[in-house]
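User: TetR/AcrR family transcriptional regulator. Structure?
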Amino acid sequence: MKNSDENAGSTARPKRADAQRNKEALLDAAAAIFVTSGVEAPVRDIAAKAGVGTATIYRHFPTRADLIIAVYRHQVEACAEAGPALLASGATPYAALERWIGLFVDFLVTKHGLAAVLQPDNPGFDTLHAYFIDRLVPVCGRLLDAAADAGEIRSGIQAYELMRGIGNLCIGAGGDPRYDARRLVELLVAGLRNADGS
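Assistant: Predicted structure:
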């Protein structure tokens, strides 16, 4: 028979797992709202999308900056984890690269609002930027290497350089309805293909 301490431990784990799932659902909801309404969207809208009360959001994230930073980190992790998953999915390496870049562009659209909360002179900005580079550049590099090894793209493309170029294409994407950053990113990615059209 289990003692009371063991019973307490077994009931605590599911609660922690539920709390983590709820927090991730909340971050997913916040990210979706930020894309459509910006980082200044009302907390009640985020709570409604996540199916929780506003108090739950404030319990996890006391300030809007806390929420935005958590969304940023959550999306970096999702983007980082997607790379290996796409390579293992059975898609060609080039198709995996294309899909991953689509996710990266989605991330950049959400990330744009971070500037409203963190200015470049804020130490938190540098920390997040370093985290972004450390997590995502190696993933992009692995996708590029796999596509190059398969003969689908030119070799020698640097992950940081490509990501920086994509980022520059996405600047101001939300400010001008005549500017379609996604289409330009698609053209850039198509340009990675080998010259023989493969």
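Confidence is low (pLDDT under 50) at residues 4-12. Residues 88 and 164 are 26 Å apart (CA to CA).
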